[in-house]
Specification:
This protein is of the alpha/beta class. Helices cover 50% and strands 7% of the residues. It has three domains: 126 residues, Rossmann fold; 119 residues, Serine Threonine Protein Phosphatase 5, Tetratricopeptide repeat (Alpha Horseshoe), CATH 1.25.40.80; 175 residues, DNA Cyclobutane Dipyrimidine Photolyase, subunit A, domain 3 (Orthogonal Bundle), CATH 1.10.579.10.
């Protein structure tokens, strides 16, 4: 009997649920990745994620060959191509890992139906998170709406069983060699332009390996360093978690082991991995929140619209708001496809609460630009900042961008890296240069602030008042 493993957001050959189950079940196992035209055709030709994926596929193909198989790569519509390939190979089952995004679920349901019609089945497994769907519920049997009790329940439930790796190598002799595995195409072959990726990310699972080794040397300092964008504090593993070039079980096991050993940095980092699970189960239980406010009363808010609002949005996207920390953050995003977590909170708060713009506009821009874009986490982050989400920041808590800058980039090191035109200013004036050093700003090509924070703050409190009356 034959099986096909369909890789999607799990681009590695080790500790892989679907691959492991397929190898244990079938005598001959084929592997495929489909460069899905339903997704790719809508992307700009310069999208960096496509370059990341192709790199990751090359490493995956290499690893599968080393284990005795190889990767079939197709550039087509997945809903058509997957059943076609399954028929061509004569497989009885297609194995894959859950993807709980609404569009992915709809796609997989169509594929399952088609396979059924051909007499084959689709078998899907949890792989992307430690706990999914309804695995962690309250005593009353409902989903958690607050993070801390969710996290406590998560920590009570977790044990070696959930953190154990799938030993793919053990049954690797079932991997089939096939002439259909003809290597991975180049960007140009599928109509994309060359893209520059930060060399630190590395290629696929090998890049994740290097980043992880580097992070484990400083994980104990994570709690103290993670909030300062100029410091190498976080792991930078998000894109690898997004595309599954590293296993979440392995990361959670490492962090959990260190936490039990008394490492506070590892404990705080594990908390972030639990946030990731938290937002995934929010998406499962509340799919409406992927397009509307999680708390419906927030849909009554009237956001700024019109030509002036559009110009403000453009200034935000391009890093020209006149608020150096916001501009440096947006330029980091535009140049690298990454933004530090503290700055994601600052820029998201700025868009919604200083510019008065709908959080969905910012969410969509991040979705285009972030290499690590993940629907559940991005939506969770934006609805946290706009106060409309599950366990969100209260609406009357409004970040002051200048004090955030003074607190988290005190020396202005991060600002100078991405706003070189401000490099000559000292640590006192760089956070609010037009107010504090107007003379030094003469002749500097840097915009004046597009809004007055104090005025914007009052306007936001008034804008959100509608929530109080309905909530
Ligand atoms: P680390 O600090 O090393 O954290 C380790 C991992 O934990 C991350 O890689 C990520 O997988 C997970 N994680 C950390 N914080 C969160 C969080 N708040 N929610 C969910 N998971 C988390 N994260 C994404 O992966 N994709 C997104 O599209 C995304 N959009 C965001 C949008 C906004 C407005 C905000 C405020 C946050 C967003 N985040 C998103 C969460 C967080 O900012 C990133 O995960 C983090 O900055 C990635 O960097 P890192 O891997 O170095 O993080």
């Amino acid at each position: 009997d034959r099986a096909l493993v369909w890789f999607r957001r799990d681009l590695r050959a080790d500790d892989h649920a679907a691959l492991h189950h397929a190898l244990k079940t079938a005598r001959e196992v084929f592997c495929v990745f489909i460069l899905d035209r339903d997704i790719l055709d809508a992307l700009p030709r310069t999208d960096r994620r496509v370059a990341f994926i192709l790199d990751a596929l090359r490493v995956l193909d290499d690893d599968l060959r080393r284990l005795g198989g190889g990767l079939i790569v197709r550039h087509a519509r997945a809903v058509d191509e997957l059943p076609r390939l399954a028929a061509e190979l004569g497989v009885q089952a297609v194995f894959l890992n859950h993807d709980d995004e609404p569009q992915a679920l709809a796609r997989d349901a169509r594929v399952a139906e088609q396979l059924r019609a051909q007499g084959a089945e689709l078998r899907s497994f949890k792989d992307h998170v430690i706990f999914e769907r309804s695995e962690v519920l309250t005593a009353a049997g409902g989903p958690y709406g607050v993070f801390t009790p969710y996290k406590n329940a998560w920590l009570r439930k977790v044990n070696d069983f959930y953190l154990r790796s799938y030993p793919v190598e053990r049954h690797a002799d079932a991997l089939a060699k096939t002439l259909l595995a003809q290597g991975v195409p180049e960007l140009a072959d599928i109509g994309f332009e060359p893209a520059t990726l930060s060399p630190h990310l590395g290629q696929g699972s090998r890049g994740a390996e290097t980043l992880l080794a580097d992070f484990l040397d400083r994980i104990d300092a994570y709690d103290r360093q993670r909030d300062f964008p100029a410091v190498k504090g976080p792991s930078y593993l998000s894109v690898h978690l997004r595309f599954g070039t590293v296993s979440i079980r392995r990361l959670a096991r490492l962090a959990h082991g260190r936490m039990v050993g008394g490492d506070h940095g590892a404990e705080v980092w594990l908390s972030e991995l639990i946030w990731r699970d938290f937002y995934h189960q929010v998406m499962h239980h509340h799919p409406h929140a992927m397009t509307a406010a999680f708390r419906p009363e927030y849909d009554a808010i009237t956001w700024e619209t019109g030509a002036h609002a559009d110009a403000l949005f453009q200034a935000w996207c391009e890093g020209r708001t006149g608020f150096p920390i916001v501009d440096a953050a947006m330029r980091q995003l535009n140049q690298t496809g990454y933004m530090h977590n503290r700055l994601r909170m600052v820029t998201a708060s700025f868009l919604t609460k200083d510019l008065g713009l709908d959080w969905r506009r910012g969410e969509a821009y991040f979705a285009q630009q972030l290499l690590d874009f993940d629907l559940a986490a991005n939506n969770g982050g934006w609805q946290w900042a706009s106060s409309s989400g599950c366990d969100a920041q209260p609406y009357f808590r409004i970040f002051n961008p200048t004090s955030q800058s003074e607190k988290f980039d005190a020396e202005g090191r991060f600002i100078r890296r991405y706003c070189p035109e401000l490099a000559g200013l000292d640590a006192k004036t760089i956070h609010d240069p037009w107010a504090r050093a107007p003379l030094a700003m003469q002749g500097v090509d840097y915009p004046r602030p597009v809004v007055d924070h104090a005025v914007a703050r009052e306007r936001t409190l008034a804008r959100y008042a509608v929530v109080k009356s309905r909530g």
